[in-house]
Automatic annotation (TrEMBL):
Start and end residues of each LRRCT domain: 334-380
Native source species: Pelodiscus sinensis
Endpoints of the signal sequence: 1-22
Pfam families: LRR_8, LRRNT
UniProt superkingdom: Eukaryota
Gene3D superfamilies xref list: Ribonuclease Inhibitor
Phosphoprotein among keywords: no
Gene name per UniProt: NYX
Listed name of the protein: Nyctalopin
Keyword line: Leucine-rich repeat, Repeat, Signal
PANTHER family associated with the record: ANTIGEN BSP, PUTATIVE-RELATED, CHAOPTIN-RELATED
């Protein structure tokens, strides 16, 4: 019994020996100017160490190496020797200008390689990443690359995430074609001009594609046909003025589509017909003035629609009806014509309280007023009546009689409103019809006070005297 008890006491210590040895070995072989820790088995931290070149030796047990923010300029062949446990390697923010083919040989378990922000690389050899058969994530962002060889990823069958944003590509790199396991591709802030019919060929598992902030002016028909698992697609801030009829056919799992910041003028009823799982649609910052009926018909999962900063004057209920139970709707910065065609939108805003800031651009009687504050009149039969256009004109070469008539009409309307507000008898005021939205009165007063020529001003004061004289008498008698 005593022997068994002693064995149990020693067992934990015996089991810990390999771990203690590994930690000791990691620290013992740590390169100068670096810090080695037991985090993630054996982490080598050489960032911000002022290194001019890659250290000649690393602990054999190393699982991650960080060489960020040094002054390394060259990566030689087998630069890291043989590190069978290394999974993560970062060389970001250096001054690397050349990578020798086979530089990463001897790293059979490497899954993550970060080389972003090395602005002098510019060129990569076809065999730069040879032997990295387990590489899952590759970051080449902001490396001033103009192109990469079409076969550079031929030995990276496990690659899933590729970061190539902020380079100088004029086309989508042909190297990604046929990469069956790619799920995320980041190509924003390049100089890409088109999405060709075969640019994304064979990307069967692609879920995320970012092409924002490029120079894309054309998308070929069915360019995304192989990307049927796509969930997030960014095409915003490009030069698109039109899209093919079948642009997004097959993207039935797409959840977010961003087309903002382009030059689109209309929304076709064919573009989104397959996007039954789409939740967020950005069409903001375009020049859209027309949405075809049926354009939103199949967007049964839509939660958020961005139509702000366009040229829309109206939004027919028949267009909006398929997405009536939308969660968020953005409509600001459009020249809305607040007539009876938009009364349904005002009611919708009041009922759901999900939209605000929709200032009217016309008619003139409601210009500048938010749609939520517009009061629609009714005919005796109960029909909606459009707000009226005010009879207001700016200075122009007008015959004297016509100018006098226009000025008198404006001023008598103004005075009648002022007198009515003072509670004077209706017969003492001018008989011009009252404005429905009284906030426009100030604007009218400003326009009149600014004048339409010296003659108009003179006539205005005469008219004021004629109209206000009876009012003064009435006030004195009281």
């Amino acid at each position: 019994l005593t022997c068994v008890a002693m064995a149990l006491l020693w067992l934990p210590a015996i089991l810990c020996i390999p771990h203690i040895h590994a930690v000791w070995a990691c620290v013992r072989s740590c390169p100068a100017s670096c810090v080695c820790t037991r985090e993630r088995s054996c982490s080598i931290l050489c960032d911000r160490a002022g290194l001019q070149q890659i250290p000649s030796e690393f602990p054999c047990e190393a699982s991650s190496i960080n060489l960020d923010k040094n002054n390394i300029k060259f990566v030689s062949e087998r630069a890291f020797g043989t590190l069978p446990s290394l999974k993560s390697l970062s060389l970001q923010h250096n001054n690397i200008s050349f990578i020798t083919p086979g530089a990463f040989k001897g790293l059979p378990r490497l899954t993550e390689l970060k080389m972003a922000h090395n602005e002098y690389i510019r060129y990569l050899h076809t065999r730069t990443f040879t032997a990295l058969k387990r590489l899952v994530k590759l970051d080449l962002a902001d490396c001033n690359l103009f192109n990469i060889p079409d076969r550079i990823f031929i030995e990276l069958p496990a690659l899933q995430e590729l970061f190539c944003f902020q380079n100088n590509f004029r086309r989508i790199p042909g190297a990604i074609r046929g990469m069956e396991n790619l799920t995320h591709v980041y190509l924003e802030r390049n100089k890409i001009e088109a999405v060709a019919y075969n640019s994304l060929q064979g990307l069967m598992k692609l879920k995320y594609l970012n092409l924002q902030d490029n120079r894309i002016n054309v998308i070929h028909d069915r360019a995304f046909q192989d990307c049927q698992k796509m969930e997030y697609l960014y095409l915003n801030d490009n030069l698109l003025s039109d899209l093919p009829e079948n642009s997004f056919d097959g993207l039935r799992h797409l959840k977010m589509l961003n087309l903002g910041g382009n030059f689109l003028r209309n929304v076709s009823n064919t573009w989104f017909r397959d996007l039954v799982e789409l939740e967020v649609l950005y069409l903001d910052r375009n020049r859209i003035n027309y949405i075809e009926e049926g354009a939103l018909e199949n967007l049964t999962s839509l939660v958020s629609l961005h139509l702000n900063s366009n040229s829309l004057t109206t939004l027919p209920f028949s267009v909006f009806q398929p997405v009536f139970f939308l969660g968020r709707l953005y409509l600001f910065r459009n020249p809305w014509e607040c007539d009876c065609k938009l009364e349904w939108l005002k009611d919708w805003m009041e009922n759901y309280r999900l939209v605000r800031d929709i200032p009217c651009a016309s008619p003139s009687s409601v210009a500048g007023i938010d749609l939520a504050d517009v009061l629609f009149d009714r005919s005796p039969e109960g029909s909606c009546l459009d707000p009226m256009e005010l009879n207001v004109t700016s200075y122009s070469a007008t015959p004297t009689s016509e100018l006098h008539s226009t000025t008198e009409s404006k001023f008598s309307s103004l005075i009648s409103k002022l007198l009515l507000q003072e509670g004077l008898p209706e017969e003492m005021a001018n008989s011009t019809e009252a404005l429905t939205n009284t906030t426009q009165l100030d604007r009218l007063a400003d326009e009149v006070s600014s004048g339409v020529g010296e003659y108009a001003i003179s006539c205005s004061f005469h008219l004021l005297a004629l109209i206000t004289a009876p009012a003064v008498i009435v006030l004195q008698s009281e």
